[in-house]
Design a protein that fits this description.
Blueprint (H helix, E strand, L loop, with lengths): L2 H15 L5 H17 L3 H20 L8 H17 L5 H22 L13 E4 L1 H7 L4 E4 L1 E7 L5 E5 L3 H22 L10 E7 L12 H15 L4 E5 L3 E3 L2 E2 L5 E2 L3 H12 L5 E5 L3 H11 L9 E5 L2 H5 L5 E5 L2 H32 L7 E5 L2 E5 L5 E6 L10 H5 L2 E4 L8 E5 L14 E5 L5 E6 L4 E3 L2 E3 L16
Parallel strand pairs: 4-5, 7-10, 10-11
Antiparallel strand pairs: 1-2, 3-5, 6-12, 8-9, 13-14, 14-15, 16-17, 17-18, 18-19, 20-21
Helix pairs in contact: 1-2, 2-3, 4-5, 7-8, 9-10
Length: about 475
């Protein structure tokens, strides 16, 4: 494999990583490139090409989920991650080992599910599979996410307004019409149980996984159920509905409540996505039930014990009449009364009480000057003299190391850098609080008393040893020195 080819592949990979692909897709792109590099068994090439993409690789690996992807793909990713670890190029061995261990544990769970065990418990919600079509074309692997929504409804004065989170114009344009149709269907159903429904509402639709590749109207059925459930809660209806656990839906819904088809190819891809997950029931349009079962039978040839069932549904009434899918039950009067009381005055009373308490605490303790550091798991709390937590940072080190004061002092110090009586905090070894991955092992940060960044410095020196150049460092704090002008 010549260098010109590898360089072309490197440029192509950089282009893909700068697009809107999901982290799952990006990881597969990096995997293919790394396999080509590792296959050369040339340490000089490996040392030249791997480090450039290790940060992206580690970030994508940390957010990887086994849900919805073939078991063989996970095996290959874990095998490669172990090879990458052996190269010694990873910036934080402990953090990387933790990521690989989590992948192995998740893969073990997936294998148990494929062998017929029902292990994963899902919050009772109307889930729906989303396919990342562009990534599927690029990788020829079924890539997607099992998404759900959280609904918040408030009464409005002049018009019904839908707010989508994340607020991306591309998503809003593609699903806007389906949202309106699902909402109208939900209102029509809810009027059977609610005496008087307000004319206008503000409806906030939050995508729980924040998937940015929602296309078409296939979320219509799940969205309608989510709307109905929240409308009945909002109006404290005598009847409540609840979707069963581990159930996913697909198919749009028109104004008459009829469930529309996706396509025979798409329905098969969605069956595959759900097969490699913890879902146990997939609700599809009636006309596509046969195609979905054909794909299921094909997948079960390899994993015959996998417990996934498919049910075809024609319309919203057919759906609501299935007690193995949707539970409809009366709410006890005591429960409704309690909800009514809480909705009208209890929450306000609690808010006022908390405000008084917090105001009193603030008056008693208004000292915002950092005084000492308190380790807590992989976090360190910056506290004032009285022990109030001012702010928190995450350090990319093992939990047991944080119990050693000497080690803590090598990563973080409280110093009054400008002799103004207000302390600052100097940190190295900071990590991303979401992924647990160190941000930059060769960088030092300085924060003010309120946790706001004052300055940062990266050690970009190059050390040459023979033909080898070292550009990445792990730094520690030894001491501070006061600068005096003579």
């Amino acid at each position: 494999m010549n260098i010109l080819y590898l360089e072309q592949e490197r440029v192509l990979l950089k282009g893909k990583l700068n697009t809107g692909f999901s982290n799952q897709a990006k990881l597969l792109f990096i995997y293919d490139f790394f396999e080509k590099i590792l296959a050369t068994q040339n340490q000089n090439l490996i040392g030249s090409y791997l480090p450039e993409f290790l940060s992206d690789y580690t970030h994508c690996l940390a957010s990887w989920t086994v849900c919805g992807m073939k078991a063989e793909v996970h095996k290959l990713l874990i095998k490669q991650a172990e090879k990458i670890f052996e190269t010694g190029f990873t910036t934080s061995h402990i953090a990387f080992e933790r990521i690989v261990k989590r992948l192995k544990d998740d893969f073990e769970t997936l294998q148990k599910i494929l062998n017929g065990k029902n292990l994963e418990t899902f919050e009772p919600k109307a889930y729906f599979p989303l396919l990342e079509e562009e990534a599927i074309k690029a990788t020829r692997i079924t890539i997607g996410v099992i998404e759900s929504v959280t609904i918040k409804i408030n009464k409005a004065k002049n018009e019904t307004k839908f707010i989508i989170v994340p607020s991306e114009k591309e998503i809003e344009e593609k699903i806007n019409e389906q949202i309106k149709q699902s909402w109208q269907n939900a209102i029509n159903i809810s009027k059977k149980y609610v005496r008087k429904v307000h004319q206008y509402h503000e409806v906030i639709i939050s995508f729980d996984n924040k998937a940015g590749f929602c296309k078409g109207n296939s979320l219509g059925t799940a969205l309608t159920l989510s709307f109905i459930e929240e409308i009945l809660k909002t109006y404290n209806s005598p009847v409540a509905i609840k979707v069963g656990e581990g159930i996913a839906f697909t198919g749009g819904m028109n104004e008459q409540g009829k469930i529309s088809n996706t396509s025979f190819e798409i329905i098969k891809q969605k069956v595959e996505l759900l097969f490699y997950s913890g879902m146990n029931l997939f609700i599809v349009p009636k006309d596509e039930e046969e195609s979905a079962n054909e794909k299921l039978d094909e997948l079960k040839k390899e994993f015959p014990e996998r417990d996934l069932r498919i049910i075809g549904i024609e319309d919203i009434n057919d759906l609501l009449n299935r007690r193995n899918i949707v539970e409809i039950k009366k709410q006890p009067i005591a429960v409704r009364t309690e909800k009514f009381i809480k909705k009208n005055w209890a929450s306000a009373a609690v808010t006022i009480l908390l405000t008084i308490i917090l105001s009193f605490i603030f008056v008693l303790d208004f000292d915002d000057n950092p005084n000492y550091i308190m380790p807590d798991s992989q976090r360190v709390h910056i506290k004032n003299k009285k022990g109030r937590i001012l702010w928190t940072k995450y350090l990319g080190v093992a939990k047991d190391l944080l119990t050693h004061p000497g080690y803590i002092n090598s990563l973080i110090k409280i110093v009054d850098i400008n002799s103004d009586g207000e302390n600052e905090v100097i940190i190295c070894g900071e990590q991303d609080s979401n992924t647990g991955v160190p941000i930059n092992s060769s960088m030092v940060w300085c924060y003010n008393a309120f946790g706001k960044l004052i300055w940062q410095y990266s050690f970009d020196d190059v050390i040459t040893r023979g033909n080898e150049s070292i550009t990445e460092f792990s730094i520690s704090l030894i001491d501070t020195r006061e600068h005096q002008t003579i």
